[in-house]
Amino acid sequence: MSALEQSRHLATAIPGPRSCELIARKSAAVARGVGTTMPVYAARAFGGIVEDVDGNRLIDLGSGIAVTTIGNASPKVVERAAEQLHKFTHTCFMVTPYEGYVAVAEALNRLTPGDGDKRTALFNSGSEAVENAVKIARSYTRKQAVVSFDHAYHGRTNLTMALTAKSMPYKHGFGPFAPEIYRAPLSYPFRDAEFGKELATDGELAARRAITVIDKQVGADNLAAVIIEPIQGEGGFIVPAEGFLPTLLEWCHANGVVFIADEVQTGFARTGAMFACEHEGIVPDLIVTAKGIADGMPLSAVTGRAEIMDAPHVSGLGGTYGGNPVACAAALATIETIESDGLVARAAQIETLMKDKLGRLQAEDDRIGDVRGRGAMIAVELVKPGTLEPDPELTKNLLAAAHRAGVIVLSCGTFGNVLRFLPPLAISDELLLEGLDVLELILRDL
Ligand SMILES: *Cc1c(COP(=O)(O)O)cnc(C)c1O
Questions:
Q1: Among residues of the chain, what percentage have pLDDT more than 70?
Q2: Of 377, 359, 376, nearest to 368 (Cα)?
Q3: Which atom of ligand 1 is nearest to 266's Cα?
Q4: Bridge partners of residue 381, in order along the sequence
Q5: Which domain holds residue 122?
Q6: Atom of ligand 1 nearest to the CA of 65
Q7: Residue 116 and residue 165 in one domain
Q8: CB burial class (10 A; 0-12, 13-18, 19+) of residue 242?
Q9: Hey, whose CA ends up nearest to atom 5 of ligand 1?
Q10: Name one GO biological process term (predicted).
């Protein structure tokens, strides 16, 4: 197959006629609960470009929600996954194990923060891995309660819906939810400013506020685990104030509570570190990964301290497909690509480029309340001019116009007013800046 040309190109209006046909077939065949962001259907994708079925080439600033971090259909991944496909597609690791699974576990034990003895278990989706992290923490502590945070997103299965904060669209009408889940206040610097400058900048103070809630409403004696995204994804790319995560971790360790970092969205070079916890120098007890792990092959993992990971009895963990051999081959190729191509440093470069450009836009436009994030995980929070009041309407219009102009960009945030950028690290500077230029022009127009 010929290489996909790395330029934005509109061959038809968006959506084009082939996409329109597929949109009609989708509404007749697919459950409406499964929504779609983009109005076009994909045909091919590579580097920083997604080509649709009408021959439009779109700039990819979403990476399929932080999944194709190293670039879609990355060459080494394609090669290794194809090799594995020809050998065997599945045996079930719990029946006839294979080396790829063990090699992925070894790689994750090596790459995740912390030098101690570690173990890993593999699953299929981020939600499934989060559920298993909770199982492991409960088994280890012999306690039941779990604390998650305001604005958290941990998935759509029953237990993870309970951990997730936002009702619409993730939980609305889908209860009852799993019991023994409690919520604590996050550190959200942009919005905490309302409650005083100190809370916005002092992560330790924000952590103390959360710890008081946890202490009084749950109690450490009942608490198995605290789970947190080191930078919240769906919740709005919220980077907690410095000191928030270390203070929480310290409290967990002093109180026999397992600290689980959900790095499903932030992992694998995305934030300019292999894992986002490294920015705060913390070593979580358990770390949950998925999304960027295997360039789109379904795979997820829980990695952590051996003594905790080994708490569940033999055969207490598993699943038919967990650690599928093709997905494992893709993961090993993904990790190799991150290391050999210096993609951690590339993510840091992208941060500089984007923050520079978006910072200049913010200086001229008081609808841009905040520019934040790390690495190639950058967001813009849109507000009514000069206030903290969210502007979801502007966000929606901006997204729709960007999509029509051939730029794939996503929103997020509890208030639906955050534009989030998750470009693949394989994107060129030129394409990335062109995507942002398109957004700038649209923003001026609106
Ligand atoms: C996407 C996501 C999940 C859920 O992963 P799925 O593979 O969609 O089940 C969990 N946690 C975080 C932080 C995520 O971004």
A1: 100
A2: 359
A3: 13
A4: 370, 418
A5: 77-340
A6: 1
A7: yes
A8: middle
A9: 126
A10: gamma-aminobutyric acid metabolic process
For residues 252 and 259, give the distance between their C-alpha atoms in angstroms, rounded to a whole number: 6
Protein residue closest via CA to atom 6 of ligand 1:
126
92 within some domain: yes
Contact 44/4 with Cβ under 8 angstroms? yes
In this structure, are 178 and 309 located in the same domain? yes
- C-alpha 96 – ligand 1 centre gap (Å): 29
Say if residue 123 is in the same domain as residue 30. no
pLDDT above 70 (res 2): no
Judge whether 3 lies within some domain.
Answer: no
Residues with CB under 6 A from ligand 1: 125-127, 130, 153-155, 229, 233-234, 262, 264-265, 290-291
**pLDDT at residue 196, rounded to an integer:** 87
How far, in Å, from the CA of 128 to the mean position of ligand 1?
9
264 within domain boundaries: yes
What pLDDT digit, counting tens, does each position of 223-240 carry? Answer: 999 999 999 999 999 999
Provide the pLDDT confidence category of residue 325 given band limits of 50, 70 and 90.
Answer: very high
pLDDT tens-digit profile of 327-378? 999 999 999 999 999 999 999 999 999 999 999 999 999 999 999 999 999 9
129 within some domain: yes
Which atom, in ligand 1's list, is nearest to the CA of 125? 7
Q: What string of DSSP letters covers 140-173?
A: HHS--EEEEETT----SSHHHHHH----TTTTTT
* Best CA proximity match to 335, nearest among 345, 324, 344, 323: 344
β-pair partners for 301: 122, 289
Whether residue 36 sits in one domain with residue 185 = no
The pTM of the full predicted model, rounded to 2 decimals, is 0.98
CATH of the domain at 271: 3.40.640.10
